[in-house]
Amino acid sequence: MKYVGYCRKSTDEKEKQVLSIDQQIYELKEFALREKIEIVDFLVEKQSAKVTGRKVFGSLIERIEKGEVQGIVAWNPDRLARNSIDGGKIIYLIDEGKLLDLKFPTHWFDNTPQGKFMLSISFGQSKYYVDNLSQNVVRGLHYKLKQGTWPSLAPFGYKNDRNTRGIILEPKISKVIKISFDKFVSGEVTSIKEVQNLLTKNKIIGKFGRPITLTKVKKMLSNPFYFGLMNYGKDSVMGSHAPLVSKRNFDLVQEKLAKRDDKRPHTNIFPFTGFIKCAECGCGITAEKHFKNYPKTRGKVPYTYYRCTKKNGICNQPYINSTSIETQLRDLVGSLSLKEIWANKLLEILKKDEEKEIKFAKGELDKFSFSLTETEKKLDKLLEGYLEELVDSQNYQQKKKELLGVKQSVQEKIALVRKKGTYWVEPMRAFLNEAVATAKIAHENNNCTLLSQSAKKVGSNYLLED
What we know:
It is a single chain. By secondary structure, the protein is an alpha/beta fold. The protein folds into 3 domains: about 1-140, 3-Layer(aba) Sandwich (Rossmann fold); about 160-260, Putative Large Serine Recombinase, Chain B, Domain 2 (Hect, E3 ligase catalytic domain fold, Alpha-Beta Complex), CATH 3.90.1750.20; about 340-440. Helix content is about 50%, strand content about 15%. It has helices at about 20-35, 55-65, 75-80, 85-95, 115-145, 170-185, 190-200, 215-220, 245-260, 320-335, 340-385, 395-420, 425-445, 450-460, and strands spanning about 1-10, 40-45, 70-75, 100-105, 160, 165-170, 230, 235-240, 275-280, 285-295, 300-310, 320, 460-465. A hairpin with a 4-residue loop joins β10 and β11 (about 300-310). The chain is elongated. It comes from Candidatus Woesebacteria bacterium GW2011_GWA1_41_13b.
């Protein structure tokens, strides 16, 4: 009778008690000498047996069906199968008389009804071990999640801490991620490509020295983990890790991502496109760069002209050079700016108003605290309804996610009131400072990009006409 030695060690299961491949081969050879059996070949596989589809095991079954071998030698029945289908194949081949014998150094088997019964029990125990192990791992991960600790590999910007079994900030990367969110909110960065360039500029790159992929950058900007909410499977839990951004800033970034229209990068950058429309037909404004050669003086000189895209058909509006648009925008932005002396007086008034509002903050804190308490009560009632099977799993998870977002938002409002006393003071202060900065931008030269950004801030619905 010809036997095949089958050796397997899983690479994705923590089976530390199982012998290595080399040890299994050695033990099977020693066993074959003692039992005086002929092993014609050794088949080696490094794959889990908890699911079907093992290629080496499949080739072994084919050889048995063809009659090339009649017996199998393995260290233990769990090396052959940890699922009911593969175990059933072995027993079926024994019933058909194609597989005549099985040999195990650690397990007794005889080709009798009792022997097959004991073999099926061994396969069942192997399957139970895998199922139970998987269940225990899932249970452990969910328990860790409920404690506010991320149970998996740390997201981008964080790293796993071996000492606390939790996650901590990765100083360099987390700092740049925070800057990326802040610049996206302020408008300094408007596209995923620009965020990618910011990461690359700070030497945060991917594998093989290449820039972080745009897909990963978008995933980073859309991950609620950075404001504290952990989404793992179907669960949503507020984590105990240090957040990188506020819920408010995260929501603002999501709004901008939803509205964005990333375009392929262009070689030419025209600062006055994207926010001006044609007054005649309502189409957008595009730009073209032309060159004129002055061989005896300045050589090849570029000139930029703006015109209507004419996507709606015929439009009679002519070209206009960039200098003309720049002059008009400088006049407009300058007229809407604020002198520094006026801004300082307004800031003094603002400071007095802030002091008054701080006194009013106590009432606001009481209101938000009440809202927070009510939200927590709703979460408790929602959980009770779920446990009593009054709410199905899908609705429970959806409503829980909404309430957790409300809770986080209220907590941030409470923190802001405690810090500032009110919400409008800081934006007003920023507006006054921006108005002063706008005046400087309007009077400087060679700053068309900044001029364009200021024009977008102080106005909208710009129309271009002859």
